[in-house]
Design brief:
Elements: E1 7-10, E2 17-20, H1 29-37, E3 46-50, H2 56-61, E4 68-73, H3 76-88, E5 95-99, H4 105-109, E6 114-119, H5 136-142, H6 149-159, E7 160-170, H7 175-184, E8 187-196, E9 205-212, E10 219-220, E11 224-225, H8 235-241
Parallel strand pairs: 3-4, 3-6, 4-5, 6-7, 8-10, 8-11
Antiparallel strand pairs: 1-2, 7-9, 8-9
Keywords: Methyltransferase, Transferase
Organism: Robertmurraya beringensis
Protein name: tRNA1(Val) (Adenine(37)-N6)-methyltransferase
Length: about 260
């Protein structure tokens, strides 16, 4: 089942397992927080996750909704990892992974077919080639090489139904870009939350949720802190990450300040 340097990890507090690889893809805190933050229809509905990577967000969401979940990933290796994780967890009837470009999904899947959209897009502008990670898989996942922020927002707006919700995780420095582009495509931001490494530090994760065709009325949620003064996870973060299974999770800290991109 596993290939190369892949490993089978516990999916944090959930009773799930996920295939990961240090040289291809390992999920990070941002994915955990987005899956927790986003609105989900509980009993039924259609949900789509864009830029799915190894399928971590669809797996998380399967614990929050009984609806149908679709994940889209352009990198074949990551898509393959996601499919095998879905199969391992016996979620084939709920989660469908698609190997393809998100820009093709409105034509392929139809407009306004989804109640909720989640997206953890590449964070960084393309830049010069020598500024990117030399690992092709990581470079595509982190830089806007195959998918720009506007691509992701435009596609989300086309896929979600009127009144449906779209949730993104990104970096705080792109907040104005996100709001501007969302409004361009009739997605009205309704909730935002900033996540900080610890008290006294600048925020490094941004969560935004918008409603298709919604009226202006933005709610700014209470800030969230990852570490306390002793550089240990805060009680809130421990509950999010571990629940009753503390110590079993394997989550990258590359967005919370302990590893370099």
């Amino acid at each position: 089942m596993l290939k190369g340097d892949e490993r089978l990890d516990y999916l944090l507090a959930e009773e799930l397992r996920i295939i990961q690889s240090p040289t291809v893809f390992s999920f990070s805190l941002d994915a955990v927080l987005l899956a927790r933050f986003a609105y989900m229809p509980i009993q039924k509905g259609n949900v789509i996750d864009l830029c799915s990577g190894n399928g971590v967000i669809p797996l998380f969401l399967s614990k929050r909704t009984k609806g149908k979940i679709t994940g889209v990933e352009i990198q074949e290796r990551l898509y393959d990892m996601a499919v095998r994780s879905v199969q391992y967890n016996h979620l084939d009837q709920q989660i469908e992974m698609i190997h393809g470009d998100i820009k093709d999904m409105p034509k392929r899947l139809g407009h306004g077919k989804f109640d909720a959209v989640t997206c953890n897009p590449p964070y960084f502008l393309t830049g010069e080639k020598d500024e990117r990670n030399e690992n092709e898989h990581l470079a595509i996942a982190r830089h806007e090489i195959l998918c720009t922020l506007e691509d992701a927002i435009s596609v989300s707006s086309q896929l979600v139904r009127q009144g449906g919700k779209v949730a993104f995780v990104h970096r705080p420095g792109r907040l104005l870009d996100i709001v501007t582009v969302m409004r361009k495509y009739r997605l009205e931001p309704k909730r935002i939350q900033l996540v900080y490494p610890k008290v006294g530090k600048e925020a490094n994760i941004l969560l935004v949720e918008a409603i298709k065709g919604g009226s202006p009325d933005l709610k700014v949620l209470a800030p969230m802190f990852v570490y306390n003064d002793n550089n240990e996870y805060t009680e809130e973060m421990k509950e999010i990450l571990y629940g009753e299974n503390e110590g079993k999770a394997e989550v990258s800290d590359r967005y919370v300040g302990t590893k370099k991109l």
